[in-house]
Specification:
Helices cover 17% and strands 34% of the residues. By secondary structure, the protein is α+β, with helices and mostly antiparallel strands. Among the domains are: 97 residues, Sandwich (Immunoglobulin-like); 96 residues, Immunoglobulin-like, CATH 2.60.40; 96 residues, Immunoglobulins (Immunoglobulin-like); 112 residues, Leishmanolysin, domain 2 (Alpha-Beta Complex). The strands form 13 sheets. Strands 31, 34, 35, 36, 41, 42 and 43 form a seven-stranded mixed β-sheet that branches. A five-stranded mixed β-sheet has the order 2-10-9-4-6, with no helix packed on it. A five-stranded mixed β-sheet has the order 12-20-19-14-16, with no helix packed on it.
Length: 606
């Protein structure tokens, strides 16, 4: 071979080798990718799984650069965006295909949408994966309404019994079959096989009692799961209704009747029947009734929450049952009040507690003899107390929101009372609140002290002790000898001082007991049993409302009738002979936090 040919072949071999080397370095898998620019879901999108469980396919994403090439070595973080739940293995590095997979995604415990966000670390590149949590298998069964019924023999109970199926997280489970079956008493069911709806509720078509009087039993069950029992008492004859309160009353228009109607439900033998639903309906007039359907208690007594007269002079209320009892009618007439305390109940309470609020309001409405200047009040919901609804109305005198609720048990904090919104022109209350511990009210009711205590607290709403500082009606507060300086009270003081045998500065205010007691009540050591000291007398000891207290309201700016005060001096003897000492009320007093101007503008002041 010639040297020239050999040289050419060598050049060709070098060129081919170079091309092969270059070709091997330009394979697609070895292209150097740019910065992460896009992310997409490659697995696990739009799944469905029971709440509290892991999705079947762990979500996976692919990261690419702006040219569409896979980006390897990028760190992707997975975080819960909505729905609750948990991520296990929340950080992953993309492989050679740009793919990263979450370790495990456990959905939240509430049915509905769950979202998981995948974000490339150090960038804003992200994407959201969505899954739907559905209620798990039904594991519990409970009554969805009443469990005890009353009906005549051979008749259907009303309403038909119903149950609710819940998963282990308390979520309603739809689509579950429930079987209802008669277990005792004979009778029959229609629609025995039912399926839970979207709320997890299934209802039997009807349950007709047997032909014999006595106990009937119905069961509801799910396949391989728990069961719920319903009871019904079959009666041979319709029950009877009799009045346990006055059937004819008189009161004030636009104000609750004096005593909420009470009915006694009895069987044919005159024995009280518990559990009987009684419906109270306004049958004439423009009155309103609250809690119109009530169930007879263990003593067979049922009553509505409230019956409030309207603007007309009369109204009737009819009580009926669905068991064929003869209806019972109550009537009430009203006159226009010269001063109106509009008590609005925010919580349920016993009939006696409700009546005590009304009795207290009526007492102050007799003492105060003239309307205030009407004001337009606009308060947001919960401005005064959490349960208070929004207020947007013209208020002539005073609106009081009242509630009875558990606080801290017997003998601790009784509750709180005071103004919430006051008039800017007079500092007189437009809206006030009263809150009592239900445990304390029960004890006060047993001791016969309920009405007096609520009357006491209502005085604080009207401004007794709570508006004094705004009006400059006290002197020496915080010292050992604070006094009340209102002119009307000072005019009443000389005969009181003589009767009390007191020598000192008028009119002595409480100088002990801490906040909520001192400086805002009459002094217990001087006034003893008077209603507006900071102490409750022992059961059986009267707590008179004296002319001094009436005078203090005049000093606040109200027009008053002194003849409505109680005789006072004679009651001191009873206080002095009491074997038990008085008890500090332990109350919290509120001052107005809102002010209402004559232009209707309501603004916060504290």
């Amino acid at each position: 071979m010639s040297p020239e040919k050999t040289a050419v072949q060598s050049h060709i071999l070098i060129l081919v080798t170079a091309l092969l080397i270059a070709g091997s370095g330009c394979r697609n898998n070895d292209v150097v990718a740019g910065a992460p620019a896009a992310i997409s879901i490659v697995a696990g999108a739009n799944q469905q799984a029971p709440v509290g469980s892991s999705v079947t396919t762990a979500p996976a994403v692919r990261v690419q650069d702006d040219g569409g090439s896979a980006v390897s070595g990028a760190r992707v973080r997975f975080t819960i965006a909505s729905g609750g739940g948990t991520v296990i293995g929340d950080s992953a590095v993309t492989d050679v295909n740009g793919r990263a997979t979450v370790g495990e995604w456990i959905l939240g415990t509430t049915p509905g949408a769950n979202t998981l966000r995948a974000t490339v670390s150090g960038t804003s590149v992200s994407i959201t994966v969505t899954a739907t949590g559905v209620a798990g298998t039904g594991v519990s069964l409970r009554s969805a309404g009443q469990q005890g019924f009353l009906a005549l023999v051979g008749q259907a109970v009303a309403p038909p019994p119903s149950v609710q199926v819940l998963d282990s997280f308390g979520n309603p489970v739809p689509g579950v079959g429930v079987t209802f079956a008669v277990a005792q008493g004979g009778g029959s069911v229609a629609g025995a096989a039912a399926t839970t709806n979207a709320n997890g509720v299934a209802q039997v078509g009807s349950w007709t009692l047997g032909s014999a009087p006595g106990l009937n039993l119905l069961t509801a069950s799910i396949a391989g799961g728990p069961a719920v029992s319903f009871t019904a008492q079959a009666l041979t004859s319709a029950p009877s209704l009799s009045a346990m309160s006055a059937v004819i009353q008189s009161g004030y228009l636009s104000f609750p009747v004096t005593a909420v109607p009470r009915v006694l439900v009895t069987d044919a033998a005159g024995q009280p029947l518990a559990g009987v639903p009684v419906t109270f309906t306004v049958s004439s007039g423009d009155a309103t009734v609250s809690g119109g359907t009530a169930t007879a208690d263990a003593s067979g007594i049922a009553s509505p929450a409230d019956w409030r007269l309207g603007a007309t002079s009369s109204s009737t209320l009819t009580a009926t049952t669905g068991l064929g009892a003869a209806p019972l009618t109550f009537s009430a007439t009203g006159v226009t009040a010269s001063f109106l305390i509009d008590v609005r109940f925010l919580t349920s309470m016993t009939a006696d507690e409700r009546d005590a609020f009304v009795a207290a309001a009526r007492r102050w409405m007799r003492i105060i003899t003239a309307h205030l200047t009407p004001v337009t009040v606009n308060l947001p919901a919960s401005a005064c107390v959490p349960l208070q609804p929004a207020v947007s109305e013209s208020i002539t005198d005073v609106v009081i929101f009242a509630e009875v609720t558990p606080i801290d048990g017997v003998g601790q904090i009784l509750g709180s009372a005071g103004p919430c919104a006051q008039r800017s022109t007079s500092d007189l209350t437009a809206v006030g609140t009263m809150q009592f511990d239900s445990a304390d009210l029960a004890a006060l009711e047993r001791g016969g002290q309920l009405v007096a205590t609520i009357t006491h607290e209502m005085a604080h709403v009207l401004g007794f002790g709570t508006s004094w500082s705004d009006l400059g009606l006290t002197s020496g507060t915080g010292t050992n000898d604070p006094i009340f300086t209102g002119a009307a009270a000072l005019a009443q003081w000389p005969p009181f001082a003589t009767a009390l045998g007191y020598i000192g500065r008028p009119v002595p205010l409480e100088n002990g007991g801490g906040a909520g007691t001192r400086d805002v009540h009459w002094r217990e050591s001087v006034f003893h049993a008077e209603l507006m000291t900071g102490y409750i007398e022992a059961p059986g000891v009267p707590m008179p409302l004296s002319k001094m207290t009436v005078a203090s309201l005049k000093d606040l700016g109200y027009q008053v009738d002194y003849s409505q005060a109680d005789l006072f001096a004679g009651n001191l003897v009873a206080a002095g002979t009491s074997a038990s000492p008085p008890t500090m009320i332990n109350e919290r007093l509120a001052r107005a936090t809102w002010e209402v101007g004559p232009d209707g503008v309501t603004h916060k002041i504290r």
